[in-house]
Design a protein that fits this description.
This is ATP-binding protein. This protein has 130 residues and is α+β, with helices and mostly antiparallel strands. Helix content is 35%, strand content 25%. The chain has a single domain, classed as Histidine kinase-like ATPase, C-terminal domain (Heat Shock Protein 90, 2-Layer Sandwich), CATH 3.30.565. The chain has three helices and five strands. The longest helix is centred in the N-terminal third of the chain and has 22 residues.
Amino acid sequence: MEKIVIDSDVKNISLVEKLIDEISNQYNLHSDVYGKLLLAVVEGVNNAIVHGNKLNLDKKVQIEYCITKEAVEFIICDEGKGFDYTAIPDPTLPENIEKTHGRGIFLMNHLADEIEFEENGSKVKLVFDL
């Protein structure tokens, strides 16, 4: 597992985008995998910064990743208290369509081949099949 640690500042999302670009180039990932990876991991890191760590610059977001012949795996951890990931409203329901938030986990669920929440939701594992 490789690892990077960033401060809880949304400006650091660009570091994650750069990392995914580098991984994509190094491993010659298919554009479909790259697109899913970029959207889901950036969403996960953004959630960790904004919702998990509440933009507290004293708190860190840890991003671990591993690439095998079969899959790309990312683990995103924040220092927040977690959340009830089983009670996320479906953003496709009519009463939620107009809301400007609440789509991140829905997106991550649909983009990743496997998603797992641990440590009360402050840790998320995303797996993308190759």
